[in-house]
Design brief:
alpha+beta, two-stranded antiparallel ribbon, 5 strands, binds iron/sulfur cluster
């Protein structure tokens, strides 16, 4: 009888608009975060983190002073190799589009 691993790691995302260039992430998990000349981080790879690197990446996530590293859930590759469908956000309506002409044209 053999036990099968339930999770294959985790997935993360880096919000570069929040990053303030403290460099903590690259210190903890240099394989997943690279810093530019000003110390701002970029994610190395696609955000998939195997189980063996979980601790280092979670330490980076928790020590980021501005919470720019976001936990996206556990990584569970599907058996058939087809990626899991992600929730799709509806596109925001563009307030400047021609579709709003009637609103802007309403002048007394
Ligand atoms: S620890 Fe956070 S703020 Fe610092 S470089 Fe990494 S992502 Fe940016």
């Amino acid at each position: 009888m053999s036990a099968r691993a339930i999770t294959k790691g985790l997935r993360i995302r880096l919000d570069r608009t929040l990053c303030d260039g403290f460099g903590v992430c690259a210190k903890h998990a240099p394989d997943y975060f690279s810093l530019d000349d000003w110390g701002y981080a970029s994610l190395v790879g696609d955000g998939t983190v195997p189980e063996k690197d979980r601790d280092a990446v979670m330490r980076a996530l928790m020590d980021c002073p501005v919470h720019a590293i976001i936990y996206m859930g556990e990584h569970r590759p599907s058996e058939d190799g087809v990626p899991h469908p992600e929730a799709h956000e509806a596109p925001e309506p563009d307030p400047n589009s021609d579709g709003n002409e009637a609103v802007w044209g309403f002048v007394r």
